[in-house]
Structures are given as C-alpha cells and as structure tokens.
Amino acid sequence: MTAPEPLPRGVRSRTATTGRLETHYLESGDADGTPLVLLHGNCSSSRFWGELMADVPDEYRVIAPDLRGYGDTATEPVDATDGLGDFAADVHALLVELGVDEPVAMVGWSNGGGVTMRYLRERPADVSVGVLVNPVSPYGFGGTVDVEGTPAYDDYAGSGAGAVNEDFVDALAAGDRSAAENTSPRSILRSFYVDPSTELDSTLEEAYLDSVLSTAIGEGNYPGDVTESDNWPGFGPGTRGVNNAISPKYFDNSGIVDVSPKPPIHWIRGETDSIVSNESFFDLGYLGQIGEVPGWPGEEVFGPQPMVDQTRTVLEDYADAGGDIEESVYEGVGHSPHIEAPDRFREELLSVLAD
Q: Is the pLDDT of residue 300 over 60?
C-alpha cells in the first residue's frame, strides 16, 4: 500500500461527528469567510477538489466533505429508495455541526451535482448559487429514453447496480493500482474521468487514484444490490447502494423547477464527457446500440439515455419558471473540467461567486 499524497498547501483535513455519521472533510480559507461547499462524484472523494481549494481566495470558507462510503467518511449504508437523500441530509448535518448558518454556494460534480439538485430542491433558501459540473441527469442514470425521463420499462430495468462492470468493482475491492486492464481503476481514471488526451501529473494521478480506491464496496454502498427483471437486460435496481440511488426509479430532481426562491444555477460541462453524455459508455442503451451488450431490443424500446438533453430541458423549464440559468461548455474537456482546465474553471467559478 502506498502512502497517500500530501494535500496542497493551505488545505486542511478535518473530521466532524454529526447526528448522522462521522464525516471527513477538507477545508480551506477563512473560517469566517463566505461558505463554499464542493461535492464530489461517484467513486471519488473530496481529494479531487484539493488543487482548486488551494487556489480559492481566503475570503471563502471552502468545505469539501467525503460523502458516506467514500474517502475517510464513515461507511454507512445508502437507502436507495430515497434517491440521493442520504447524501443531501449528511451534507446539511455537517453544515449545521460546523455552524454554517447562511446560504452556501454549492458546487456539485457528477453525482455531487445530483446531491446539489436534491439539496436545492429541499432547501432552496439555503443555497445562494448552484454550480453543476457534468452533473448526473435530473432523471438519474440509465433506463430512460427521452427528455421527459420516460422509463423504457415500468420496472426501470437496465438501471441501478447491475449496470456496473463487475471487473471494475472487483478491481476496486482488490485495491488494484495497475493499468493492465481496461477496467482497472487507473485505466478508467485516465480514459473516462478525463478526456483520454489529458495527461495527468503523475503525483496528482496517484492522489486521485487513492481517492477512487477509497470507495466502499458492497450492497449497501457501491454499487448496491440487484434485482432480477423479465425485461432486457435482465436486471433492475435494488433498494440499497449508491448506483440504485441514481436509478430513475427513485431519483427525480425535475422538481427543482417548482422551488421558491430560485437560486441561480450555473451549468459547466466538458464537451467530450463520455460518462454523462447522450452517448454514454456507461449507459446500457447506448452500449446495446453499438453492439457491446447482446440482445438489445432496439432504439424504439431502449434507446440511449439523452442525459445532456434531459438536463438542458429541466434547466430551461427552471428558467421559464423564473430562475436564472447559464451553461458553459469546455471544448476538448471530458468529465472533470476542474481537473482538466483548472485555471479556466477557477476563474469562472470565482466570477459566478462574485456575481
């Protein structure tokens, strides 16, 4: 086992015990500064925010928690039937414990974007601005076929924990640091977390790989339990674990359209993202279409999930209902704009915060 890479200068490691669980978080800036909360995605941790945190002015109090089952936060089970509700409630409990009693700017990357939408939907007055970075669709991940989030099947077959590559899960559980297989955590980090043309600094790659490998494996965490289905591809979402929590059976954040007040939402996405995409290499509808999964019933039954279009449709509805929306696209950037284009991302984020 390798020693963890040190944190960037000015970034502090902390732990807080709330009424829900023991939460590890990173913190930077002035303890009395304007609160800025950064939420990481699936199979990662707060460590993916470290370099950004080191470059944010001290006038902000930056708080980046490890969500349950990731990093150094307690491995508590995830109730998938409440969507990402456990994560949103954990974040709120942490902010209460830390004495944050004013609206926060909340930045959510990937699944963290789903937590941000959930938080905003439940506590809109507690959010000054929401920044969604390549967020999971408001209709979750997998099993839907149009911009309204219509499921391919009534039992939401094709979504949930069963859609996760078993070889990747085994490699995570084994702590595999090699790049020998396409499904190894290091290979996935290099090919999908960032655009394949992006060459990560070797030290940062090790830090990010540590973060990926911190993922708690099991039916209660990642990826979750699986149920059988008579529909293609033969499984549906279970009731436990994070990947079931983003199944559209339980996950629907389109209700942000109806919240009041409506915090401004800034959507940042990498143009070449192949995780959250209209042609996602992690979506069985798309994989079936390109012949990677046998027995695909066809586009008229189970076409690729239009993830980006779903997000845009919901945000346009949010704007039509009186909200302020802005979309920013990073060309040549994949799933992690804050990693791949750090200078541009920092300047854009600071501009959003200033506004």
A: yes
